Amino acid sequence: MSTSEALTELSFTVSGRVARPCAQVYEAIADPEQLSRYFTTGGARGRLEGGTEVTWEFADFPGPFPVAVLEAEPPRRIVIEWDSEHTATGSGYTRVVFELEPIDDDTRTLVTITETAWQPTIEGARAAFGNCEGWTSMLSALKAWVEHGINLREGFYR
Fold first, then answer.
1. Per-residue confidence at 1, pLDDT binned at 50, 70, 90?
2. 150-155: long-range contacts at Cβ-Cβ below 8 A with a sequence spacing of 24 or more?
3. Of 6, 30, 106, 120, which has the highest C-beta tally within 10 A?
4. Is position 4 within any domain?
5. What is the average pLDDT across 66-80?
């Protein structure tokens, strides 16, 4: 970035590899029953399908979070928006993109999660770093759940 370019928003990308085919990993993200078993410690309601709104709840952040599903392209991509403070767009939402790429003849999946749209401020950075931690935790929990049936988050937050 040159000195004449202004930073207009903060974003991050995290990724990890899961030793299962894309379709199986996609289902673990899109299916509310599975998502509730390893990620949304307070439960998920509604399948991640394009044009829908679902709710997620977390023990560490009580109360339902509405999640708008903008795109769902099985088994490769899901795009959601959800409410957040300190957003750069003024919409009050950040955008999260889940991309799943088959590797090793689709015996493994590269999962990449990108979240965008925070203000380039101290508050925006704190919010982005917090969510970055959350999505990194989600990837670890997804891997443990899909590969071994283990819920890493059980008892972690309460």
1. low
2. 151/37, 151/38, 152/38, 153/38, 153/39, 153/41, 154/41
3. 30
4. no
5. 98
Please compute the mean of the pLDDT values over residues 3-14 and round it to a whole number: 88
Q: How far is CA 121 from CA 17, 81, 134, in A?
A: 32, 21, 20
pLDDT at residue 3, rounded to an integer:
60
Among candidate residues 94, 82, 100, 95, the one with its CA nearest the CA of residue 22 = 100
Residue 132 confidence (pLDDT): 97
User: In the chain, what are the helix, strand and coil shares in percent, each to the nearest 5?
Assistant: 25, 40, 35
- What DSSP string runs through 75-117? TTEEEEEEE-SSBSSSSSEEEEEEEEEEETTTTEEEEEEEEEE
From the centroid of its chain, how far is CA 154? 18
The CATH number linked to 80 is 3.30.530.20
> Span 89-111, mean pLDDT?
95
Residue 122 domain-assigned (yes or no)? yes
